């Protein structure tokens, strides 16, 4: 399969660059007080900003590379990717750093590495490839869907064991969308959807801390200093912003340690406080724009693999963004998930940008031309 | 061309639309949080970030009725530490402890606490604060700070201490006016609100909000500083002379119920109340002391009887010296009785049988009507904490014997303020006014609330009240109250002497309450006063003898201070009224070898009349001899030992030195020409020459002294003056 390259999707490229830039600025703004605390562990207001900047540079490099790496060549690596995914997931459970009760990072000495970010990319690539090969077979459950459900489900279970329900759920959600897009039957999808919802409900009810979070979601003021703290302070930060926000760098509630995870999971609340409703809407709009360009690329892609790959990668990003903003605005129960391109986290940044690189590469081969 | 299959395209389009819709929900949600709940959450967020530092409100001042400041608040420093900024807690503690008079270890603990604010010591004086400031400026200590707080300052220290009361460390009123008007005086504390981070630290460019404290209201009392001063001065005299358990005087303006002065002894300095014994400050005897008023209560009996017409001024009475009620013989204070007398004379003589007859004629129902109307058994509602209500036998249970004794002021307990309020009705044409202490509440120097005189009720008619005042004037001019006569003014009043009722009921031997209730001037009363002297020492306990002069001492200055016109042509009472002391047999105590002053005191306490003969400090002989049984009032002749001459070699009698200090013993021995050879320290315990032995002047007496707790029995006057308690009940004098 050889096709002529066209120009990349400039709108998508710009959208991602904008998200990335806003993210860099907001990571600095939200973290500087905490990082610069003379009594704190970092004593450098730029601590997180510098790391995020490095992540962004590496991520942009990866994106640039993937933009020029023809996507169908990825098919060769699918097996390796699957193996790598499982190996790193086992590794993180065995040797991972524990932070806030979860093992999500591998300490590589010079930096830490979050395998679930790699796994998302790999599983999506694998499932997109697999589904594209099955063609009509996707209509049948056992031969068409089962292998991918097992591969993705296994990975999701390992991620859930970290524990990281949010990432596991978005991964499975993305796989579900891929199956839907690939043409799976409505009945199968309904059953899978029901099973997924049941799984999430079970995960919440069987784990006391999730149950507490869920209760706090229902009534944050029941335990304002405990399980309700996160959501209450996120809402307070957002509300402090109003229409236009307090101004860049002026968010007081988010900065002064009231907002937890202010530069990672709850960065959207810091944006809401500093940039207001306008800023929050801009972020949402950028993600909608990303979805629009992403799905457009998928739809216009000439081959099923490219189409599903682009759709899967876009879905992964968009779903994660939706869950994150949903959590911060109190629309969904609290789960530890980052906002793509914006939250602090080099691993996430690098793999998200890698994914975008792949999508941009796919955009160069549209059927419309 | 390789078209992606149509299903994929369709389904991805749906996916995109669904995703867009989901994001629109988030936009809606965001709008709801930021706009609908925005204000509420924003306010909450600010509350969460803000920490309050309270700012003490300045407590209102207290003025007397003429605007003289009695109580004010002054600024003082309180010292705190921020333990995080204390470099070397141990060293700091060792430097501060001696200045602050605190324990080093406790201080070091405070300085190393995990908090950002700890009080070290509050309201220290300027000198201490200055020393600590110096240490800070020299860089010897760190993490110590000052907060300006206010401290109550009572300008006249003990003046009207029980009325004013005092405040605690947080300037909260604890007793007196400070407590009852705490809410008005306190003001509204302000706040400094400062933005903090979640770790409790002040943030850069923090939002500050200053809510200023609202100063408390000022009080203008009804007390007149000058009149209060007269009262305090006279009470001091009484204390010096009679050393009573306590003494008090209250002066009221009968027309308004305003208390012009209220003094108590013992008293205390509210600036340093914590250093004074609790029993001195925690009760205000003027409003709390329940006592049997004795004869001062006869004013009430007379009021009831005259108002009800059960007695008239010229009704005749015959006093054989006693009255028999329900088989009980109640004696008049005058042995042999007053014989035939009019009611005017009954009052003038304070004749018990006369008043008992009047009381019995009035009857329980009518008598109780006035007991209740005059407010006995009820609190007056004066704005001071801790008022007692007196004790009145319930009307249903009262017997004729009770009625008889109540008529002469026994079997009923009143508080001084209650009795004063009742008697003020007589002064105010029968209208009883509610006693009060606060005239005005001021805010920012302007009157915010004026407390108007409050009429309780008309208790007796204007005519009856006028008649009574004339009767009371007659008591002062011709009767038992002559000691209260003030030159130039028409004064009326009534004396009272009662025995102290013990805890188990029954009277306590030798303990009396002397009192005097007076009205002046009787034709247009401007002051009503009650003075009470409880348990005086030194043998004098008659109201007419010790309480009336106390009243007189106060009234003569108050009436002139009030610039009331003098009534010309008033003559002094012609002859001193003979107070006939009831005859009881007492045993003469041994006072030989006593220092003369102590001997006189002991004899007076026993109801005897000491007379000295000769010069000297020591009694060397007495007639009658110790142990003799004589009538009270008998003269006891004390032979004093002349000051000896060491070189004369004349024989001198060795005194009993037991219980004296080295100095006292030395002085006495020297005065009679003997030398002291002291051994040990404390008070004299034993001496080598027996008391009473004759020695040549110039001889040496060896005395062993031991610490006083070993045996501190000073030669005590023998208090065997009265033994028969039946007789005691009848000892009521006027």
List its traits.
heterodimer; A: 369 residues; mainly alpha; 13 helices; globular; B: 734 residues; alpha+beta; seven-stranded mixed beta sheet; 35 strands; 26% strand; disordered C terminus
Write a concise synopsis of the structure shown:
Chain A has 369 residues and is an all-alpha fold.
Give structural notes:
The complex is a heterodimer of chains A (369) and B (734). Chain A has helices spanning 10-35, 47-67, 78-95, 115-134, 141-160, 165-182, 186-206, 208-218, 229-241, 252-255, 267-300, 304-328, 346-363, and strands spanning 97-99, 102-107, 112-113. By secondary structure, chain A is mainly alpha-helical. Chain A has a three-stranded antiparallel β-sheet with strand order 1-2-3, covered by helices on one side. In chain A, α1 packs antiparallel against α2, α4 packs antiparallel against α5 (141-160) and α4 runs parallel beside α13. Chain A is globular, with a radius of gyration of 20 Å. Chain A starts with 9 loop residues before the first helix and ends in a 6-residue tail after the last helix. In chain A, 57% of the residues are buried. With 734 residues, chain B is of the alpha+beta class. Chain B is 32% helix and 26% strand. Chain B contains 22 helices and 35 strands. In chain B, strands 2, 3, 4, 5, 10, 20 and 21 form a seven-stranded mixed β-sheet that branches. Chain B has a five-stranded antiparallel β-sheet with strand order 12-11-25-24-23, sandwiched between helices. In chain B, 45% of the residues are buried. At the A-B interface, α6, α9, α11 and α12 of A face α1 and α2 of B.
Strand content of chain A: under 5%
What class would the helix/strand composition of chain B place it in? alpha+beta
Uncertain residue segments of chain A: none
Q: What gross morphology of chain B would you assign?
A: flat
Oligomeric status:
heterodimer
If you compute it from the alpha carbons, what radius of gyration of chain B comes out, rounded to the nearest whole angstrom? Answer: 37 Å
Q: Look at the structure and give the mean pLDDT of chain A.
A: 90
Give the overall average pLDDT of chain B.
Answer: 85
Report the largest inter-chain contact. A-B, 53 and 43 residues
Continuous helix count of chain B: 22
Q: Helical percent range of chain B? A: 25-40%
Strands of chain B, count: 35
Distance between the termini of chain A: 16 Å
How many beta-strand elements of chain A? 3
Largest sheet of chain A: 3 strands, antiparallel
Distance between the termini of chain B: 136 Å
Helix content of chain A: 55-70%
- Given as residue ranges, the uncertain stretches of chain B (5+ residues, pLDDT < 50) are 710-734
Largest sheet: spatial strand order of chain A: 1-2-3
String of helices and strands of chain A: HHHEEEHHHHHHHHHH
- Secondary structure class of chain A reads mainly alpha
């Amino acid at each position: 399969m050889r096709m002529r390259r066209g120009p990349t999707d400039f709108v998508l490229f710009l959208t991602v660059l904008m998200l990335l830039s806003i993210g860099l600025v907001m990571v600095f703004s939200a973290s500087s007080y905490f990082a610069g605390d003379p009594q704190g562990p970092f004593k450098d207001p730029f601590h997180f900003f510098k790391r995020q900047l490095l992540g962004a540079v590496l991520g942009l490099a990866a994106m640039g590379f993937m933009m020029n790496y023809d996507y169908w060549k990825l098919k060769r690596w699918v097996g390796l990717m699957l193996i790598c995914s499982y190996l790193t997931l086992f590794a993180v459970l065995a040797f991972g750093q524990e932070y806030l009760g979860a093992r999500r990072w591998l300490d590589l000495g010079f930096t830490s590495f979050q395998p679930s970010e790699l796994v998302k990319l790999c599983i999506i690539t694998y499932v997109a490839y697999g589904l594209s090969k099955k063609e009509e077979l996707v209509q049948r459950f056992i031969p068409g869907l089962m292998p991918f459900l097992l591969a993705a489900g296994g990975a999701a279970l390992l991620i859930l064991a970290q524990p990281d329900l949010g990432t596991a759920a978005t991964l499975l959600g993305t796989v579900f969308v891929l199956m839907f897009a690939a043409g799976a039957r409505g009945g199968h999808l309904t059953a899978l959807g029901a099973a997924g919802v049941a799984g999430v409900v079970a995960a919440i009810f069987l784990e006391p801390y999730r149950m507490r979070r869920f209760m706090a979601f229902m009534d944050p003021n029941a335990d304002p200093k405990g399980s309700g703290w996160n959501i209450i302070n996120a809402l307070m930060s957002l509300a402090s912003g109003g229409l236009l926000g307090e101004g860049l760098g002026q968010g007081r509630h988010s900065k002064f340690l009231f907002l937890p995870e202010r530069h990672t999971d709850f960065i959207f609340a810091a944006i809401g406080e500093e940039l207001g409703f306008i800023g929050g809407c801009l972020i949402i709009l950028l993600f909608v724009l990303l979805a629009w360009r992403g799905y457009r690329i998928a739809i216009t892609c000439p081959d099923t693999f490219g189409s599903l790959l682009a759709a899967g990668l876009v879905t992964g990003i968009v779903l994660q963004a939706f869950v994150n903003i949903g959590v911060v605005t109190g629309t969904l129960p609290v789960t530890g998930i980052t906002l793509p391109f914006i939250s602090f986290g080099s691993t996430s940044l690098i793999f998200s940008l890698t994914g975008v690189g792949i999508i941009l590469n796919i955009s160069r081969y549209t059927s419309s031309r | 061309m390789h078209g992606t299959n149509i299903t994929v395209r369709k389904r991805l389009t749906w996916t995109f639309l669904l995703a867009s819709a989901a994001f629109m929900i988030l936009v809606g949600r965001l709008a709801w949080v930021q706009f609908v709940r925005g204000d509420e959450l924003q306010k909450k967020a600010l509350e969460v970030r803000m920490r309050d530092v309270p700012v003490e409100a300045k407590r209102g001042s207290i003025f007397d009725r003429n605007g003289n400041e009695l109580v004010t608040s002054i600024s003082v420093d309180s010292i705190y530490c921020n333990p995080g900024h204390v470099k070397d807690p141990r060293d700091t503690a060792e430097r501060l402890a001696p200045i602050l008079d605190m324990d080093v270890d406790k201080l070091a603990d405070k300085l190393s606490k995990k908090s950002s604010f700890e009080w070290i010591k509050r309201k220290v004086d300027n000198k201490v604060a200055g020393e600590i400031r110096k240490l800070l400026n020299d860089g010897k200590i760190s993490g110590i700070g000052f907060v300006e707080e206010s401290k109550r300052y009572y300008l006249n220290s003990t003046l009207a201490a029980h009325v004013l009361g005092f405040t605690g460390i947080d300037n909260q009123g604890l007793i007196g006016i400070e407590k009852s008007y705490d809410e008005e005086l306190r003001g509204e504390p302000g706040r400094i609100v400062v933005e903090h981070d979640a770790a409790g630290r002040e943030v850069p460019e923090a939002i500050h909000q200053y809510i200023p404290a609202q100063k408390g209201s000022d009080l203008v009392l009804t007390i007149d500083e000058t009149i209060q001063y007269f009262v305090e001065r006279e009470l001091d005299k009484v204390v010096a002379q009679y050393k009573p358990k306590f003494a008090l005087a209250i002066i009221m303006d009968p027309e308004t119920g305003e208390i012009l002065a209220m003094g108590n002894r013992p008293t205390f300095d509210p600036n340093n109340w914590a250093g004074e014994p609790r029993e001195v400050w925690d009760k205000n005897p003027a409003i709390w002391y329940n006592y049997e008023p004795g004869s001062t209560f006869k004013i009430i009996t007379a009021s009831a009887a005259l108002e009800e017409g059960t007695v008239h001024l010229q009704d005749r009475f015959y006093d054989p010296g006693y009255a028999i009620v329900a088989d009980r013989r109640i004696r008049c204070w005058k042995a042999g009785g007053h014989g035939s007398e009019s009611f005017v004379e009954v009052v003038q003589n304070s004749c018990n049988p006369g008043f008992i007859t009047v009381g019995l004629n009035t009857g329980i129902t009518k008598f109780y009507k006035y007991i209740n109307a005059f407010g006995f058994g009820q609190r007056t509602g004066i704005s001071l904490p801790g008022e007692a209500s007196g004790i009145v036998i319930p009307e249903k249970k009262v017997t004729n014997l009770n009625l008889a004794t109540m008529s002469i002021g026994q079997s009923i307990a009143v508080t001084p303020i209650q009795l004063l309020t009742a008697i003020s009705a007589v002064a105010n044409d029968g209208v009883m006014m509610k006693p009060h202490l606060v005239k005005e509440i001021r805010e920012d120097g302007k009157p915010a609330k004026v407390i108007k005189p409050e009429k309780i009720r008309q208790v007796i008619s204007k005519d009856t009240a006028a008649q009574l005042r004339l009767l009371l004037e007659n008591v002062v001019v011709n009767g038992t109250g002559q000691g209260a006569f003030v030159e130039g003014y028409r004064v009326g009043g009534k004396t009272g002497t009662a025995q102290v009722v013990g805890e188990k009921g029954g009277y306590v031997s030798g303990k009396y309450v002397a009192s005097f209730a007076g009205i002046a001037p009787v034709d247009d009363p401007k002051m009503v006063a009650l003075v009470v002297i409880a348990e005086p020492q030194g043998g004098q306990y008659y109201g007419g003898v010790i309480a009336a002069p106390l009243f007189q001492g106060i009234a003569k200055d108050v009436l002139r201070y009030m610039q009331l016109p003098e009534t010309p042509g008033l003559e002094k009472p012609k002859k001193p009224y003979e107070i006939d002391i009831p005859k009881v047999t007492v045993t003469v105590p041994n006072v030989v070898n006593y220092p003369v002053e102590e001997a006189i005191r002991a004899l007076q306490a026993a109801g005897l009349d000491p007379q000295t003969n000769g010069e000297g400090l020591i009694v060397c002989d007495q007639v009658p001899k110790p142990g003799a049984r004589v009538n009270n009032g008998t003269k006891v002749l004390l032979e004093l030992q002349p000051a000896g001459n060491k070189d004369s070699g004349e024989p001198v009698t060795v005194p009993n030195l037991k219980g004296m200090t080295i100095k006292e013993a030395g002085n006495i021995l020297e005065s009679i020409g003997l030398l002291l050879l002291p051994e040990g320290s404390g008070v004299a315990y034993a001496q080598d020459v027996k008391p009473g032995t004759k020695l040549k002047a110039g001889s040496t007496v060896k005395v062993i002294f031991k610490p006083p707790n070993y045996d501190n029995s000073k030669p005590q006057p023998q208090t065997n003056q009265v033994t028969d308690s039946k007789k005691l009940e009848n000892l009521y004098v006027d």
